[in-house]
Specification:
This protein is mostly helical. The protein has one domain. The chain has 13 helices and two strands; from the N terminus they run αααααβααααβαααα. Helix 10 packs across helix 11. The chain is globular.
Length: about 325
């Protein structure tokens, strides 16, 4: 029974960590129409920033500042935001599939930098010993994970409420206006390029927060944690749950990560050992099939965007 509870807590922690990244992507794509295919890169920036700021000192490797957990979280968000600002300025004229190609290339570049810049990232070996903030506050793995789950829930709730308030504000309504008709938005005296850049930066800051929480929980970070498959997973979570709906984004994270972990369990325990080496490919194919089925049968996702009708239109219908 304790083992089952421990697994559920572990599963919820990772689901909600990824859910925070999905919320950031939802702000970019769901509400603004920004096709960010470099999600893994910005999660990686947040993770490495957290490892450098809070991790122990290491020979011939930069960092080891051993700063508090909260400072690491803030630093991860700030560095991810600065990186997003730089990327956004360079790619501000790109849209749709062109932006997707550019951000994908940037994410691959970030992963290769992490792989080869040993002084900053530890290279292929990565960085170990990143402290978990709950180790001194609770005894035993289950109690520590339960406390960390509370931290993740709190930060996830803050992120959810913040983005909900953002998209319901006048600035958030302008995001949707730009998504639907950029020319019309420009005719109202707005600056779509600046607003898109702001949304891109805010979304990437949420992804950086996700990466920081991930590395604090796992205690280790390497370039192999941020391959393109991670971007594919985050996008699938958003599409399954429902784009432009923050509740759908979190639901999609729970469902897709649940399918991923359960399929991994089945592959390791049911599939013949001689083909278990292809388990990762099988999981990716399964997630791809789910994505295709959702796009065909329910393109708006399980919880699609809430249709909003003005008070004036409702009064006319009444």
């Amino acid at each position: 029974m304790i083992g089952l509870v421990s697994y559920i807590v572990f599963f919820l922690i990772l689901s909600l960590i990824f859910g925070i990244a999905v919320l950031g992507l939802n702000l970019q794509w769901g509400f603004t129409g920004l096709f960010n295919a470099g999600v893994a890169g910005f999660i990686g920036i947040g993770a490495y920033t957290m490892a450098i700021l809070t991790g122990p000192s290491r020979d011939a490797v930069f960092g080891g500042f051993e700063l508090p957990f909260v400072i690491g979280l803030i630093g991860a968000m700030v560095v991810s935001g600065i990186a997003a600002l730089a990327v956004g300025i360079v790619t501000h004229k790109l849209k749709h599939e062109y932006l997707a190609v550019a951000t994908f290339g940037i994410a691959v570049t970030i992963q290769l930098v992490c792989l080869n810049w040993e002084y900053l990232t530890g290279g292929t070996l990565g960085l170990i010993g990143i402290p978990n903030p709950t180790k001194d506050l609770a005894e035993g793995p289950l109690a520590q994970n339960a406390l960390f789950l509370c931290i993740v829930i709190s930060l996830g709730l803050i992120t959810f409420i913040a983005i909900e308030n953002i998209v319901k504000s006048p600035w958030g309504r302008m995001l949707k206006a730009i998504r639907e008709d950029e020319i019309a938005s420009s005719s109202l005296g707005k600056d779509p390029a600046r607003i898109r850049l702001e949304a891109f930066v805010l979304g990437c800051m949420a992804m950086g927060l996700s990466g920081a929480l991930y590395v604090s929980f796992i205690g280790y970070v390497s370039p192999w944690d941020f391959l393109p498959i991670l971007t594919f997973q985050i996008w699938t979570m958003l599409i399954v749950g429902g784009s432009a709906n923050n509740r759908g984004a979190l639901l999609g994270a729970l469902i897709v990560w649940g399918v991923w972990t359960m399929s991994g369990y089945v592959i390791s325990n049911v599939v013949p050992s001689e083909i278990q080496a292809q388990g990762g490919a099988m999981q990716a194919i399964l997630i791809g099939l789910i994505l295709v089925v959702m796009l065909l049968l329910r393109p708006r996702g399980l919880i699609g965007e809430e249709l909003q009708v003005s008070r004036h239109a409702r009064s006319l219908n009444d």
